[in-house]
Specification:
Length: 246
Amino acid sequence: MENTDTGSPIKKFECTCCGECCKNFGIGGFLPLWEWEAEDYEKLASERGISLRIEPEGIIHDRKSGLFFCLKYGMRNQPCPFLQENKCSIYERRSLACRAFPVAMTPYFSRQVNKTNFMECPVVDSEQFLHAIGASKEFSIKIEAKKTDSAFRERFGDSYDCCSHNEMLTNVMPSILQSLIQAKKIEPEPSHRLHNKRIPVYSFYNFLVRIGACSAEGKIDAINKFKDHELFLKMINAPENSDSST
Ligand code: SF4
Ligand code: SF4
């Protein structure tokens, strides 16, 4: 990551508050939300008399239990109903995806993610950005949170760390699923579940509770840890985890 300070440096990001990223969520057409964020958004919307369209994304059918569950949710209202007078009216409680923007949805800073999967920010030159981090049109690059260098933090501030936080969460659920598959506790298969909307789709942690893989208290503990951004920052900045050699 040395090349971020040489060659063509990425300019320090300064949001112009144009609001474009809150009006159009790009080709996917939804704002990705973790289950606790979806619950929070529903609560905030209900308090404000706003109607939200939040749907499960990435539905999985567990052949063993017969239950359906999802890893994430998507808010499909565009523009975002929390955008008021071009400002986020829930700024302190906005989702991790909102906080990670405009870096990307994940630290896989691929052209595809930046160009098609999410709304582009007019302030960020994604071509220059990809070049500076060593990625190209053909290849994406994964930047690990532990290898985050100060140049990125200086340029993107907390957006970069939120991006890494989001990525960490994105990796957690498949690894839990993998261990449950190995223990023969679940037999997952992808599902669109379009045929019968009356069948419930459980959130990931409610599914774990339903199949007895997690207690109700364990679910709350895990979620509280996952959503704690300060805890995440402490974890990646802990001396034993730091790796400044790259
Ligand atoms: S699109 Fe970029 S400049 Fe506009 S509000 Fe979003 S982050 Fe800020
Ligand atoms: S929650 Fe706030 S930051 Fe996120 S899309 Fe809506 S208005 Fe924008």
